[in-house]
Amino acid sequence: MPSFDVDVSHRIVALVRDILAQNASSTDVTTDAKLVDIGLTSMDMVNLMLALESEFDFTIPQELITPENFQSVATLERLVSGQLAAAKAA
To answer: Which 8-state DSSP code applies to residue 68?
Structure first.
């Protein structure tokens, strides 16, 4: 299993939990849980994308806004870490 940045992962889980709480859902959020399976709708995904951009202070490139990148906390963590690494390298 790849090692994840625990801080990034925790921050993403917190954002997902916030969105679920707005929907009056308190499903347990694990890094591997499929976001649609725990109750996120397509509108929630848009809100999550905006929350990620705000939380981590970057804009997700259009080509990375894919169902594959928004499957789980783990896939989002890879997306965010990649964007943060790219920003540091720039």
So the answer is: T
From the centroid of its chain, how far is CA 73?
Answer: 5
Q: 82 by DSSP, 3-state: which?
A: helix
Q: Read off the pTM.
A: 0.86
| Integer Cα distance of 8 and 81 in angstroms | 7
Q: Are the C-beta atoms of residues 33 and 72 closer than 8 Å to each other?
A: yes
pLDDT in tens, 28-53: 888 898 999 999 999 999 999 999 99
Give the integer Cα–Cα distance in Å for 33 and 53: 21
- Cα 56 to Cα 80: distance, rounded to the nearest angstrom: 8
Token pair recorded at residue 83: 């964007």
d(CA 56, CA 83): 9
Q: Pick the closest to residue 85 from 77, 32, 2, 3 (CA basis).
A: 77
